[in-house]
Structure formats: C-alpha cells, structure tokens
C-alpha cells in the first residue's frame, strides 16, 4: 500500500499486481481511503455487479466513516465521497455526462482497463480533471489478447508474488495432478482464436461420456471430500459434467453467464452452505468470485494464456478464516488438470509486461514427483508439496 501511495504522489497513475487471495480489495480500499482523507472524491470501478457490491462492503470495513454511493443498473448516485460503479453502466453517455469531477479513479481487475468502455470513462475523468490519479489492481496484468496496459499505466508500484504469499501462509500451495485421458495431442492441435482456444473444438474433444466418467472417478479418488469448482469449455459440456457428478452421488450445480442475478445467488449460496459440493461453470467464476473453503479446482479445458489459468487455479488458493468457517481445515488446493494448461505454462508466477508481450512463450517442462505425484517444474530440486528431494546434479531442460 505504501509503495502505491508513494507512486501516486509523484505520478498520475500506477498499477499494483498481486495474486488472487492477496487482499487486493483491502489494499485498494486502504489506498482509496488514504487518498480521499482530505475530502477528495473518488470512484471505484468494477466490471460486474457482484464485484461492485463486494468492493463497497469491504471498503466500509476499512473506512467505516467514509460515505459511499453506487452507480449500477438500478441506482445512479454520486452522493458519497467514494462511489462504486459498474463500468459497463457508467460508460454509457448519459451516465458519463452526470459524473462529477473526480480526484481518483480506482480500477479493480485492471487488466480490463484498455477496453473501450474503460477508456471512455478514463477520458471523461481526465477531461474534467487533468490532475486526477488512476490506480489499478490486478492479479493478471498480461491480457490474453496481448493488449498491453501501457495506454493506461506506465509503471508498476508493487508486485507481490504467489510464492511469497504461500511461504508466508497467506495462500495455500496448489497440488497439481496432470491427468492424461488420451486427448493431450488433440488439444494441442486445437485452433487458437484471438481470445483463447476454440472452445467449440475443445468441447468436441472433452465433452464425451467416457472422459467425464474418468473425471468423476479421479476426483472421487483424489479430492472426493473437497468443495470443488470445475471449469468447462461450453455450456453443454458444463451441464453434462454436473449431471455426471450428481448421478454418481456428488451434489453438483451449474452457474451460467445468462443466469439472472437472483438465480445465480441461490446456486452460489447453496455451494457456500455445503448443500452443493461441486460447482461447475464455463467462465463465470474465473474472476471476482471466491469461497475460501474451495480446495479443489478441476480444469476440463486448456488455456492458451497463462493469465486465464492463474485466474482459474486462484479460486482455490485462499486460506480459511476459522472465525468465518469454523471446523474447516485447509492446507492445500488440489488441481486436477485434464487438459494441457499446466504442461503449457508450468509455474503460476507471471512477470509483468505493460506492453503486452508474452514473457514466457513456449511449453514449460515439468516432472512428476514420485512420492506425491504432483506435477512440478522440471528444474525443482525439492518438491514444494511433500518435500521429496531429487537426486543428482544439474537438471537438463530438453530443447
């Protein structure tokens, strides 16, 4: 936080980078509170309703004396010193025209900041006040479409790495199993679009009953007692996977992008209460959603971009607060990768490149720990999961 404040004291923008679970919302709340302490006016942007309300609630915990307001699909008020706004709503011409002069614009999930809707908002803020500051936070600064963030942010105030947070106990370690169900070569051959792999082609490979049966079998063997989030390729794929889990006696539900907010809330509450053990989705829960007791992530789709894989696996890395979840013990997160994401990207660490270049091209070599079967980077001398020591001298990376 202090580094972000220092950067904003001398620059008109800065970006903070930290993994999922690092407390980015608390950090942006603290920075916003400090920068509006003299009566300055701020707006905190998010791209979904759930994030807008979540950010407002957490801000109130940190800055309980600061008055807030909200701009979303149903309410449009700028009465608070800090206003929480949903970007798609605020970007409409009429809403932009009603926006007052701001001293600070905060962008949650700041990898969205180069989208046209965000650029309109930033332009309007700067037109009204050329001295306004822009502060962004994200776990995944390198966008899948290779668009750099330099148009909005020209510096990174701070980057907290996943390994640091695991070592300090702020996140649990992932324990990854790459499970080959005989489709890895087919997945490698799938066409890539501007956004990701062609998910229709992925579904043609993955959405088959024998594969889904293997998914359920491996899950029951390795993570059958864990709350689990599953990422699929298409809606039809997600529906079939949920059906298979239910038919095997494992309560599962699906969250879809076209669900109404009330219906989605009911499903997520059923998962949070434990009534549903397995929640299945396509891309709805990739960011902006967390349930800390989740301790298994199942990947039934590949990710051509490391940022997407980081977001998905990140859903299971949060630690559990005993006060909020009494009786829940969580020491790791099992990741069952039935695709090729882990083989392609290796480590979950990601270097920042504001120009959008991929800092880690190519397929990252991995190896399997003989003791715990976790898939780990090839160069590791010790398994980070079970502590197994690998014998020998220099590890040679194949070309």
Automatic annotation (TrEMBL):
UniProt keyword list: ATP-binding, Helicase, Hydrolase, Nucleotide-binding
Protein name stated in the entry: Putative DEAD box family helicase, phage associated
Residue intervals of the Helicase C-terminal domain: 210-360
Stretch forming the signal peptide: none
Highest taxon of the lineage: Bacteria
Xref: SUPFAM superfamilies: P-loop containing nucleoside triphosphate hydrolases (SSF52540)
GO CC annotation, single: cytosol
PANTHER family documented for this protein: ATP-DEPENDENT HELICASE IRC3-RELATED (PTHR47396:SF1), TYPE I RESTRICTION ENZYME ECOKI R PROTEIN (PTHR47396)
Residues in Helicase ATP-binding domain copies: 5-159
Species for this entry: Oceaniovalibus guishaninsula JLT2003
Gene Ontology MF annotations: ATP binding; DNA binding; helicase activity; hydrolase activity
